Amino acid sequence: LAEVVVEAEIFPKILTCLKDVDTYVRKHAATCIREIAKHTPELAQLIVSNGGVGALVDYVVESEGNNRLPG
Q: What does pTM read for this prediction?
């Protein structure tokens, strides 16, 4: 399923969702990225290559309470 999501060309578009005004959009975007990254090293590298690490760090720094990315 992760490969299908990536084939839909969500990168780098989904990274902009990490800056959305809606906190739930940001949380679900981060969760989606997390789920894709854990499947294969190649998918994780795709996220890194598209600037995902910096975007996720910014999200974690800015998020609060229940909207933090769960482990």
A: 0.80
